Amino acid sequence: MTHILTDLIKALTNGEVRVVDLTQPLGPDTPVIDLPPPFAPSPPLSKETISEYDDGGPAWYWNTIRLGEHTGTHFDAPVHWITGRDLPDNSTDTIPVAAFVGQACVIDVSAQVAKNPDFLLSSEDVLAWEAEHGRIPDGAWLLLRTGWSKRQGREAFLNPAEDGPHSPGFAVECARFLARDRGILGVGVETVGTDAGQAGTFDPPFPTHTFMHGAGKFGLTSLINLDQLPSTGAVVIAAPLKIVRGSGSPLRVLALAPAAR
After folding, report:
1. Which of 98, 124, 196, 259 is most deeply buried (CB count within 10 A of its CB)?
2. How far is CA 67 from CA 27, 78, 195, 208, 243, in A?
3. pTM, to two decimals
């Protein structure tokens, strides 16, 4: 089996396989999901310099950072949601590491979202995709390409209105279908959360979180560069920090994809 890894290194070296960064930059201006009162808000990232080649440390530079676990491009573990709180191995330090690596199945709905920011993926959409590309394999990541990562600035990205944020996501029946009828690792999105902006009004509220985490599956949010991945054939590596009883974590999501032709 060693030759498989050797061949992979050769393919990376000669450009047959490329590494695609699916992670947005993380800084103080990175948008964080807004929750209405009385719910506790998550803070944006803040940094404080410990030393920068000065009296605090003449030869080194480093910072302290403060941020919520669900900031920027991040991982949602099952314990993040009440439906997954009693599952075994449900936090970032106990999930088996093999679950952080899986095939990527990319469903492109960017044209629909350009016309309707509240677009919801249906199970019929998934079945239509499978009719063309084959059934979503067990152990795959389902990534929803919406074009949302092209939006610049907090207002455009969160897209708030008087009735709450408006952004695409999964219909209730689709979230249930994916959680119960497909053996995926989880879903990945370009938006600030795995649920649609208006999902607080759905029945049940926030169905992607409710069904996915209740089934022991994961979420990836605020992804970028999904337009650089094929519909099938890429591999995603999404490893959160090993936070003890962590509900999630910012992470660097990488994809291994065949060279563009």
Report:
1. 196
2. 10, 20, 21, 24, 13
3. 0.96
Question: Does position 60 have pLDDT exceeding 90, yes or no?
Answer: yes
Which residues carry out catalysis? 80
| pLDDT of res. 260 | 76
Question: Is 35 in contact with 41 (CB distance < 8 Å)?
Answer: yes
Q: Which of 197, 200, 190, 213 is nearest to 72 (CA)?
A: 190
Average pLDDT over residues 143-153: 97
Mean pLDDT, rounded, for 93-108: 98
Instruction: Decide: 258 and 30 in contact? Cβ < 8 Å.
Output: no
Mean pLDDT of 115-125: 98
* Mean pLDDT (whole number) for 91-115: 98
Structure tokens, 17:
């396989």
